[in-house]
Amino acid sequence: MPKWEIKMYEKVDPSGIGYLTVERVNTSKDGKNWAVRCRGGLCLSKRGKWEYEPMPSSRTGAFKKRCRFDTAREAMTAADKVKKPF
User: Fold this and answer.
1) Is 3 part of any domain?
2) Rg for the chain (alpha carbons), in Å?
3) Which residue of 21, 30, 37, 68 has the smallest Cβ count within 10 Å?
4) Which helix (H) or strand (E) holds 51?
5) How many domains does the chain have?
6) Left, alpha or beta for 40 (phi > 0: left; psi -120 to 50: alpha)?
């Protein structure tokens, strides 16, 4: 029987519209990590800066090191510290 697995969390503003997601992502060498994403193709780096997220085939090891978190809690904590980019 398949097991349940959490792959995404969404943060919503008071109007009920989601604006940030913390998503479980696969990385080819490192297994599974977490990404903080928002509308417009932006991704949060560990330094608290929003970056454009390239297509999967264009994501370098440096990008993954900057913009992937080891745990969902680490990603959510980082997301809570930054302002929305729009």
Assistant:
1) no
2) 13
3) 30
4) strand 50-52
5) 1
6) left
